[in-house]
Amino acid sequence: MNTMMDTTTELGRWLSGELxxxxxxxxxxxxxxxxxxxxxxxxLATYHGKMLRPSLLLLxxxxxxxxxxxxxxxxxxxxxxxxxxxLATLVHDDVLDEASIRRGETTIHCLRGNEAAVMLGxxxxxxxxxxxxxxxxxxxxxxxxxxxxxxCAGEMMQLYHRNNVDLNIENYYQIIQDKTAxxxxxxxxxxxxxxxxxxxxxxxxxxxxxxxxxxxxxxxxLIDILGEPSITGKxxxxxxxxxxxxxPIISMLHKNPNLKPDVYEAMRxxxxxxxxxxxxxTGSIQFALDEIERLVDLAVDSLGGVFSxxxxxxxxxxxxxxxxxP
Amino acid sequence: MNTMMDTTTELGRWLSGELxxxxxxxxxxxxxxxxxxxxxxxxLATYHGKMLRPSLLLLxxxxxxxxxxxxxxxxxxxxxxxxxxxLATLVHDDVLDEASIRRGETTIHCLRGNEAAVMLGxxxxxxxxxxxxxxxxxxxxxxxxxxxxxxCAGEMMQLYHRNNVDLNIENYYQIIQDKTAxxxxxxxxxxxxxxxxxxxxxxxxxxxxxxxxxxxxxxxxLIDILGEPSITGKxxxxxxxxxxxxxPIISMLHKNPNLKPDVYEAMRxxxxxxxxxxxxxTGSIQFALDEIERLVDLAVDSLGGVFSxxxxxxxxxxxxxxxxxP
Lengths: 326, 326
Description:
The structure is a homodimer of 326-residue chains.
Chain A: H1 10-30, H2 35-42, H3 52-63, H4 72-93, H5 98-102, H6 114-133, H7 138-160, H8 169-194, H9 199-226, H10 229-232, H11 238-241, H12 247-255, H13 260-269, H14 272-281, H15 284-304, H16 310-320
Helix pairs in contact in A: 1-3, 1-4, 3-4, 3-8, 3-16, 4-6, 4-8, 7-8, 8-9, 9-15, 12-15, 15-16
């Protein structure tokens, strides 16, 4: 997947400047008296990505005129906070279970072993809460605490349903809403809160964020099935290896329950190519693509009634890119 | 190590009632819509211990007359918060690195594999921040964020110095101050803050907490060397296995640098008995015991000038128990 932030546009250039300040804020905040801590934090460079969550926070804040009224310090701090939480989940996602190790998969980013990854993730999580607390807004702290618990609960549910080919679509949506959409929604909501948006507007922003978050995760799951690692910069088939059952598989099995043994066998043997063919031939990839389109349109519509500034148009443009072929 | 809370005394009985409310608050707060999350949280029963941190928070709060002026709701919540943070560190301490697994040590509490333990610990950490945020006190949130980062940094430093027989005493103290004493200090400080203590008093409480925390960790490290698992309820020799170099070893090597190869060999082969004999014969166990005594006296003295209520006397009694033979 290409970076969602196109720095050749005017907005892209504007945000890239803002995001640089966010990155610096993160580095400064993570800096520690212990050199060993800084050394380990240095490993985070490999995790730096699109900064989608800070971008959404900054764009939402700007869309609601926040750049005309609020101290930008808090905005930059909160943008750093949501990225730190996201980084913590990435680092902890890389901790291997014993089964994986026994399968010899120790080549997945291990940093310096599981224990170091656990401590680094904890440090990121704690640092995020600490940085958020420096803004001294009880409502922002409350939202961050709530959303972080939700993210963890979603991850736990995902683990619970590992290898469960009977996972139904409601539970799948609940899992991705919790593990992914919750933080994306909160990033947008925080942007709105910092801009002083009304309750009604915040509710529209929340609907927007949730649709974007769910669409984003469905697309991310598709990339794992379809993506060429050389282009996406990610491994493919990781979900299959980890027994993660995602939307194309669920919709296929819903319509073709007789394919359950084939899916189970593909998961057992890690046969990504075979699975991909099954999904293509049953129209299940297209089903997921249609669902992304529906969600993106829903997201854009939900903001339509609320505001129409230039920044908002850019926000919608950004989100439209989720429709691009994975 | 026996429980530090003796329920046969008047105070023990009083606190046991209070601690029950704290436990219930924790359970209620951790309860989730996902049954899989609740199932995993059920595994925490094996981690329930002395509740030292909530006890210190409650006793400090009471010592400064907090029970006469402040809404007890916040106190119970914060007592739950510090225990949740502590539980999170315990759960994450049990995540194994690949080396440990290769050494066949999968019998250490693994819950349901590394990944589940990581997610559960994250859920505890996030829930702690969430619960703290419901009290809507920016200063308490700030303190919690700061202390949690410090704890993680301390754990990372400990990992960094694994198998380092050249670890000097200053770095050892820094590590245990960060990974252990910081949260114990914060527990006491929060009790004081909730009771409305003055800056000067909070400073004395902080000195008290730090001395107690350092003494506690030195004692815990001694238990790992000397304790009988059947009595302490803990494994012994875990530090040796994990390459954790603690005070008796550091002081022995400071006086007898020629013993370094012996220590290194004991660590390599996991020879706890041999190490214990070395430490006994060089007076290094006694050195650590003397240090605990010095720290406990320092702790008690630091509160002496500030107050002298019944609860304070009980607080000092509680801390005096750290002098008991491990």
